[in-house]
Amino acid sequence: MTERCKMEKLYKQIKEYIPYNRQEAADKALMLQFMERNPECLTRENLAGHFATSAWVVNPQRTKVLMIYHNIYNSWSWAGGHADGESDLLAVARREILEETGLADMKLLCDGIFAINVLAVERHIKKGSPVATHLHLDVEYLFEADDSLPLRIKEDENSAVGWVNIADIDTAVTEEKMKPVYTLLCEKMKMY
Q: Which structural domain range is residue 23 located in?
């Protein structure tokens, strides 16, 4: 599949996505416009912004969410990562869950995109190199997994992995700008 075809498929998925609220509608419009103007937005070579994907993994009772303690942000966070040239963001999300938590056995709860967010990533140092402020055009997927399955830490990115009680997310997450995002995801997952 050519790069253009890959982008067209992702563009179509985002275009067909029905926003949950006005913020998602604004983020959807920005994503589509960004894709139209930046054909290389699947890679980190686009320094202004690029696609990333995240996974919201809940237990069967919907009382806990699988999170990692992210070393860069010093906060509990969803699992996820950069598209790095791949347009099948669902496959990327599955791979990121496996890499960051060791969890392989999970069920997709939502057919297609669960949520979208355009997130500002502040400048930081990663592996000794500076990373400039940029946008993550983040596409999220909803999964379910058994919260008794073994997990593992990906030490170069996180220092802990575990199931966080949904009722405790607001206190567990110290990255203030992510709290409303996670609150919305908890609200949306009640539909599944």
A: 3-189
